[in-house]
Amino acid sequence: MKQYSHAWLAFMAIKRLEDSDLKKAKKYGDSLIKWFKDHKDGVCQGAWYPDLIIKDMSSSHVLKFTPVNNGEKGKFRKLPSAYLLHEHCKDSDLRKRSYEIDKDTNLPDRCEAIAQSVIDNLKMQESEEKGSPIAPTDNHVATLLFILSHYVADAHVPFHCDSRQFSEGDDIHGKLEKAWDDAIKKYYRLDKENERFFYNPDGYPLLDKDNKEKYKESFLKKVEDHLKKRKFALTWGTGNGNVWDFMSAVCQHSYLLSYLFIRQGYDHTNVTSKNWKKLGLISFEDLNVAVLSDAIESIAKVYLRIWRKYKRWEKG
Questions:
Q1: 249 vs 154, 161, 190, 232, 240, CA distance in Å?
Q2: Which CATH class name applies to 3-315?
Q3: Domain spans of the chain?
């Protein structure tokens, strides 16, 4: 994904928490929401650090799957039933086939490591006296949180989990991600000089008043409408006990979604700018809604889980 897409997803994840009935987790959600909003001006830069500064795109932004014919059924982790990734991919033929994971691709490991680092840094900050030279600053911790949302979002991008080379040829990978970023830049007001959004009174990205009518017909509005109907739950799927498990499940389903969108028999040699939206069993718009809705949900879940884990430690 591109810069404003990553930042927008992080904002929408916090909005998802604020709009949801968190029940017993409400006290954790409220403190996380306030903390995020106090540091929101750094989202665009922080969420873009993995591409701009860290540059581990070939390994930690991806978990690449290749279907293989060895007669064994693939082992797939579960996602929450409300996930569109689950709904679209539950009957995929590839579930009956085994797969190989490309070596040196390790996105779930990266997500787990950063999640633990956020908690560790919050604990160190809490334990050190004010003014300690070794205490992490709020801005440092916030940047880690924004970086984490980048990797979580990338797990939902179908081509990040498909070993076919869609960045080559007509660069369909780039065109897909550009479509998301172009929509966000079209419908929201950007302060490009300072690399941030302008904000509405609630502290979220401000819609461009000149495009509000067109926004109603966009896939971004469909994402918003879908999430309003979806009940938020803290769970991240039966059998998934940590961030690594959850991100592994997401990556598996992103792999299935990629083959649902561009079916077997196609790769960078025969997918073109003219045919790439018409080669599967799911429409381009449905793909967009599934990827962006579930990415928002996942970032919200991961943020809240690690914040709750820290806060429970803080109480002793």
A1: 13, 11, 34, 18, 8
A2: mainly alpha
A3: 3-315
